[in-house]
UniProtKB/TrEMBL annotation:
Lineage, broadest ranks: Bacteria, Pseudomonadati, Bacteroidota, Flavobacteriia, Flavobacteriales
GO molecular function: hydrolase activity, acting on carbon-nitrogen (but not peptide) bonds, in linear amidines; metal ion binding
Organism: Wenyingzhuangia fucanilytica
Listed name of the protein: Arginase
Pfam name, any one: Arginase
InterPro entries linked: Ureohydrolase, Ureohydrolase_dom_sf
Family membership noted in the UniProt record: Belongs to the arginase family.
PROSITE patterns linked: ARGINASE_2 (PS51409)
Amino acid sequence: MIQDFFTPISAEVLSFKETSKEMLGCQLVKHTKELGFPDLDKVNLAFFDVREERGAVGNEGTGIGADDIRKQLYQLYTGNWGVSIVDLGTILPGNEIKDTYYAVQETVDFLLKRNVLPIIIGGGQDLIYANYRGYNQLDQAVNLAVASPKFSFGNIEDDLNSNSYLSKIILEQPCNLFNYANLGFQTYYNAQEEISLIEGLSFEAFRVGALKDIAVVEPVMRDADIVAIDMGVVRCSEAPANGNANPNGLYGDDICAIARYAGISDKVTSFGIYEYNKLFDVNHQTSKLISQVIWYFIEGYSLRTNDYPYGSKDSYLKYLVPFENEVISFYQSDKSQRWWMQVDIPTQSKYKRHVLVPCSYDDYLNTIEQKVPERWFNVHRKIS
């Protein structure tokens, strides 16, 4: 059982008394020394932190700040959610960093098999690798979306760390990755060879300037299984608590919007926030922002409509758009008015869950004008 990986929530956090029963700290079930490990039956979301920083390049101290986030999170008022949430406590660093990765991987695997969505607080973003490995036993290709100023390919010979985890995900077996999407990269932090590699692998990358209309990330979130946030993607003036903080980046409300889109997505099954460093936090500014990011994710989760068209599409409006020598099918949900476009593949393909590509109404209109979205071509190339 995964409780062997966890230590209870600290007495310092538990000594904080919420002033209202409507605050989140009173609504969630906590792992305490007195009450023991929570029962996960009928739980929707499980929050936990990982105090591992040995793989966090240039951000020493990122493994010690989760309790500051908890204190801020517990003070927030809940919405009208109807969501069952537990705080599992803390995974402490193992004797070796691979031991920590194993604990995270096994925890994610355990929770996913029980339909419990993990919310992970790092620690370095190399923990994204452990989160991804938690999907190994599910026998499905997964989509990973990361908000970060860098792609984190690193060098092939590098050890696994926050600067190289993506190359390990792509190259090491078993490879379960179908798509990687980066949100908020900054060109001057990424080699041109890496940018070309993203294009060559038919992955997606959105420069920080392309996210001025943050709604463009909604289809990306709707297609993701794993969503991760490197707090270095938020500009220093908004979130100073990061050893690799940048003067440019997303604003606080942008990262909250991304979290809300991730929460709303029926497909997202794990969510993580990494690289927070309390040593650089000013007036708890960043811990407050992270607590609000988590709040928005929960808010989004409570609004899920479960209208992803996995099975029968009888209740969806279908539109057919001729393009060159084929016809592209578009589907619109009558519940949420959201759109998908279909990539035709053989019925027995292992990529069946990826043939319906989330898109926007504008994508539909552009296709009518024979401007098919790049996302459709990316999926087509991968499964053809």
